[in-house]
Amino acid sequence: MVTVYVEALKIIAIVSLVIAIALVLIALPKILQYLRYKPVEVATVTPMTNGGAINETMVLLPYPKLKGNVSVEEALLMRRSIREYLPKPLTLQQLAQILWAAQGITELNYKFRTAPSAGATYPLELYVVIKTGGVEGLRAGIYKYDVETHTLMLIKEGDFSDELARAALDQDWVRNAPVNIVIVAEYERTTRYYGSRGYQYVHMEVGHVGENIYLQAVALNLGTVAVGAFYDDQVAEILNLPSNYRPLYIMPVGVIAGYEKLSPEELISFYERNREAKGFKKTP
User: Fold this and answer.
1) pTM over 0.85
2) Are residues 137 and 10 in the same domain?
3) Which of 31, 120, 147, 249 has its CA 20 to 30 A from that of 11?
4) Average pLDDT, 10 consecutive residues per value, the chain (284 residues)
């Protein structure tokens, strides 16, 4: 009888251990999210206002606007890869809005962002290359976007648009754009939890962020194009990237003259012609 009792206790202990391990695995993403948090180093700055403020090392960006005049459906319809821009600067509000659309905070407990990330590991960082006169009131230089304070930190002062274009195989849209957003990855933030599969997750994530930039640009009557052809090491050197950061996308952003918008009637007519050509019954 005692032996049966002991064996039962062993079984209960094993089951309890399995349940405990399962609970830890379920809670692991949230635990890791808290462990990943690091206090942001903030330089001495001028008082923050809704209009934005600029000092020697930090730019306090205007707060993002959460309502616009262009619907998601219209933005999808008008999304294009734009490589020619008018010779006009962006406003600080426009730049702030695009950066928030790319990686802005959308939830406060776990600091979720505008683009999905595997396990909320958030391996991506945004660098902004601004040419002379590229953004109203902002000097030329390379800046890094800080997600939790919605600010830009100056990394290097000067116009590096020509150097960036040469590193990108002399693509003129990189050279001529007033602003280039460079999306870089620290793969280890994701691969340490997902192994080699994490590389795929990071590449998926940069696509999400790139599309957010596209759609927000449309809503602001701006244009952009995703550039993947460049020499990684040269871009990393220009940006002064840490050795474990790798650039994935360069996205020039500039003012465009306008769009040739496809009308709903034209779209429906296109679908109807193709349905008819394939022998489908006419839409009732």
Assistant:
1) no
2) no
3) 31
4) 63 70 62 42 37 70 96 96 97 98 97 98 98 96 98 97 98 98 98 98 98 98 98 98 98 92 93 93 69
